[in-house]
Amino acid sequence: MALSKPNRLKHRKDFSRVYQHGLRRNSPNLTLRALHGSKFFAKKSLPEGFSDLEPQVPSQIGISISLKVSKRAVVRNRIKRQIRAALRQLLPRLTAGWKLVIIVRPQAVECDYFQFLQELEQLLLDAEVLNGN
């Protein structure tokens, strides 16, 4: 099951902007690139005095996994499914307005869901993207 549409980072230019300007946090199996959306992403222009009424843009997430991780699409897709499942569990705790790219490293082939969940949570805490706790 995929992430909901508002939470997907889809366009190449958005991925590129996060890669170029975002902060980086590393773990043994994953790398997180994070960029707060208010810095580089265009907002709809509102009349003066209405900026407080602007709705919060939900955080958007993209997953990048290369052929270096595995030549087999079945393995790469399994890893993406596990990461998306872990992200769905963490999604309610994410601060709004962030653009995130999760990059999978080749060592991740041997990981299971709980290890991905633990590493993602730690990466998001280090980047100060998670609310509370």
Automatic annotation (TrEMBL):
Name of protein: Ribonuclease P protein component
Lineage, uppermost ranks: Bacteria, Bacillati, Cyanobacteriota, Cyanophyceae, Leptolyngbyales
Protein family according to the UniProt entry: Belongs to the RnpA family.
GO cellular component: ribonuclease P complex
Catalyzed reaction equations: Endonucleolytic cleavage of RNA, removing 5'-extranucleotides from tRNA precursor
The organism of origin for this protein: Phormidesmis priestleyi ULC007
One Gene Ontology term from the biological process aspect of the record: tRNA 5'-leader removal
Record flagged with keyword RNA-binding: yes
Domain of life: Bacteria
